[in-house]
Amino acid sequence: MIYDISIIIVNYKSWDPLTKCLDSILNEKKLNLQVIVLDNNSRDNKFDYFKSKYIDVEWFKNDKNLGFAKACNIGLKNVKSNWVLFLNPDTILTTNCLYNLFNKVKKTKNKIISIKQLNEKEHDTYAYGLFLNLYSINGVFRYFYRIRHGLSRKLLSKKQSFSPDWVSGSFMLIRLKDFIKIGGWDEDYWMYYEDMDLCKRAKKINIKTKFYNSLYCYHFHGKSSSIDLKTKIKSKTQVIKSSLIFINKHYKGIYRKILTFLVYFSKVTELILLSPFVKDKRGVLKKILSL
Hints:
Layout: E1 5-11, H1 15-26, E2 33-39, H2 47-53, E3 58-61, H3 67-76, E4 83-87, E5 91-93, H4 97-105, E6 111-118, E7 128-129, H5 139-148, H6 153-156, E8 161-162, E9 166-167, E10 171-175, H7 176-182, H8 194-204, E11 208-219, H9 229-250, H10 253-274, H11 279-289
Parallel strand pairs: 1-2, 1-4, 2-3, 6-11
Antiparallel strand pairs: 4-10, 5-11, 6-10, 7-9, 8-11
């Protein structure tokens, strides 16, 4: 059986958000959807219950927490569609969201597609961005670069669609053959920056992004990464580690060295300043200094 879209969701102890996510997907009546959920060893005895509750979903359990990229690559082995949607468990699809999107893009080639994502307060979370480099190294630099090049979020939000450097892996739709051509998710990234890396590699082979403001879903960001203090520290440490992996992979020579130093120095400085007041910052600082 060939589906219209295969949806891959990686879960780690996000059962409550996942319930809302799956309900919103299964409410999508106008498309024939394959839903694949990979549990990254949540170890909370809830897997079998959810497997029996959502019998139309294909369930897989990993032996350990493999991270996002590797789990997604495992899920791809079971895809039965020409289109794949990577979706976070803490997202909720609006009515006919996928149907409306699919009608827009089903004839599209060489594109990585995403849509606007709103948080609990109905605010745009800006699920896209600039590639990590010297002019995007921090919020101040990014702000002035966007203003100079006409890429301010205010201007972009008024467009029906546009092509940013990268789009978030929390909602990423792509043709399977294009995804394979790019080379799949890079499993060197346990969590974070894998979406930026994918879009960077895609751009090199003329596969561009397409972001639609005219369609939206909800994304209650961080439900999986802030379950407890240990998970929060691990997640925030991984952001920094993954940024360094990205730099090392995509840049060379003195540029790579300068960018690595600036990223590491800025993050360590921030952690030192905040660690006396925030417990998880102390934990992240300790891990980063041991790298």
